[in-house]
Amino acid sequence: MNKKVKKLLSIGVLALILGAILTACSGKKQGASNNKSSDAKHSIALITDGNGVNDNSFNQSAWEGFQSYGKEHNLSRGRNGYQYFQSSSAADFTPNFDQAAKAGYQTIFGVGYSLKDAVASAAKRYPKKNFAIIDDVIKGQKNVVSANFKSEQASYLAGVVAAKETKTNTVGFIGGAHGDIVDLFDAGFTQGVKDQAKKMHKKVTILNQYIGNFTSSDKAKSIAQSMYTKKADIIFHAAGGAGDGLFQEAKAINQTRPAKDKVWVIGVDVDQSHLGNYTAKGGQKSNFVLTSVITGVNVAVKDIANRAYNNKFPGGKNLVYGLKNNGVSIERGQISASTWKDAQIARANILKGKIKVAIHPNNK
Is 229 a member of any domain? Predict the structure, then answer.
């Protein structure tokens, strides 16, 4: 083989090696799938509150909406697609918004009223980015959209269910801390119980107590114990993480009884049925979650992300999601066929305006 041929072969081998190196260096970012694309203009980021993305509540629901948005538009998880930034405490809010904005995410969501100030501040620092606050209202900022929910509507349906399903004619409501949001759950549930009881010509007692915060599960457990002792057989909570105490007490009681004599829990925000699994006296596997009142955070974040995707980001607006657009709902759960039928009739009458439920404070 002459020197010229050897030289040409050496150049070819070198080119192949360089090509392989360059190909390796241009791989997908962590979390991205090879069959997915990425697009900075349509990228979205979620800033969680201190409860994390697997909170059985708003953060989890929001992340489900993100995943659905990514799947619909063939976007990958990670930079230029969709991602979440975990907050351990309020001190992480601002740094997480900064990190998301500087990483190139275009539409950034803050989930929960505790992030309101951080969203408003970040929107001022990054005027070319889109921001969204879930479960509160920010006014006067053109690059911020607010999203809220007619929780009273779904809670009314839960009240209808509780009034019809109770065997003791006593039900309970445990709230976290008073405020516009939780008070809506309370008012809707109370109205639903009263309306259904009147329709059935019976009296249903409603036990009502607030914890004072959304973290004291031990206090929620104590309140639940008192309510169940006072013959409540169904308790609905709107208490965030503190609501775990209600599930703990219901489980403790139900484990000592036959499954047919169980006390019930109505979950909140997401389907909480998985928290109701237990073994009844006698060894029977059972579940004590009657239904859950769903707050469609996943519906809202996907809707807002899609509007941004279509270059129609609703900055400056307050979007309110209710029964009409599946922004709130209740799970079928273990509701009897007859009771489910009554709940659906009530739903239809709310949508027709025949039933007026407490007015949403952000939609007056």
Answer: yes
